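== Item description ==
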Amino acid sequence: MKLTQKDRDFWERLKMLLESKDLSVEMKEDGYKRLVLKQNYGTKIESCFKMTRQGVRWRFHRLFNDIYVDAYSTIYLIESQFGTQLRQQALAIAKEQVEMRKRYQQTGKLDFTDDKMSMRNPLHRVPNCKEFCHPKNSSIQTA
């Protein structure tokens, strides 16, 4: 999953428009199922998202059909082969990684003083941080 700052800006604006009922998300089925945006696609939408209507449709499709649905497809594939007994552990790891990313974004540094954090090197696992994806090129010290 590779999300960008543009993706984050998009979903924050989308959330606001969904809450105000200016847009809605529906499932469309015309040969295959997919999520689509519904309602007003006028100039208000273009000005809110700061992109064309086609750009809004493209980014929505990428986030909700490519990334979101694909994530569940992957989970379904793994759990159909190995069962659901590892789900809680996988969720705990994912939550930990999100918290690490939030801490890094707030402080600009990683804190490895926690015993469970010192047991492994999580640098390559934290999503959306370039420094974590390329630890060899990073200036972050891990211990």
